[in-house]
Design a protein that fits this description.
This protein has seven helices and three strands, in the order H-H-E-H-H-E-E-H-H-H. It is mostly helical and 146 residues long. The protein has a three-stranded antiparallel beta sheet. The protein is elongated, with a radius of gyration of 19 Å.
């Protein structure tokens, strides 16, 4: 008896699956952010702040106009979750920096993403390692134009 190898998914099937997972993860992220009084966009800003980031850089990451970023940062700054600092290389440029409170709140948001954590718990250690390796391989290719 002959067995056939499973057919590889098409790119369209992979794209649809990635989109469905991304949408579910984003919904979970937004719900956890709302629990802390943040919009999903405010939480996304906090998640991007691994170090000082110019306002223009935030606008590019959020794929929005710089004027929109000003309002988002204003609201985060009012809650003392971020602060603006002059860039040491160019004092005209304002960098956004997460405060300790901002880093803590985004840590809690990620920790409270129950649907996402539950889905990842369905994977064993080998599957988790394989998924991680595949995503790490795709990440630089997906982010190269960001």
């Amino acid at each position: 008896m002959r067995t056939t190898a499973p057919q590889a998914p098409t790119k369209l099937q992979l794209l649809e699956l990635l989109a469905a997972i991304g949408t579910a993860q984003w919904r979970d992220f937004a719900a956890a952010a709302a629990h802390h009084g943040l919009t999903s966009t405010q939480a996304k800003v906090l998640a991007q702040l691994h170090g000082p980031l110019p306002m223009r850089g935030l606008a590019a990451l959020l794929v929005c106009d710089a004027s929109n970023v000003t309002g988002i940062v204003d609201r985060l700054e009012a809650r003392e979750l971020v602060r603006r600092e002059a860039d040491p290389a160019d004092r005209r440029v304002k960098n956004v920096v997460a405060t300790d409170a901002g880093r803590e709140i985004i840590r809690r948001v990620r920790e409270e993403m129950q649907e996402t954590h539950g889905a990842l718990d369905a994977l064993d250690e080998t599957e988790s390692a394989t998924l991680y390796a595949l995503l790490e391989r795709l990440r630089p290719l997906m982010e190269q134009n960001a």
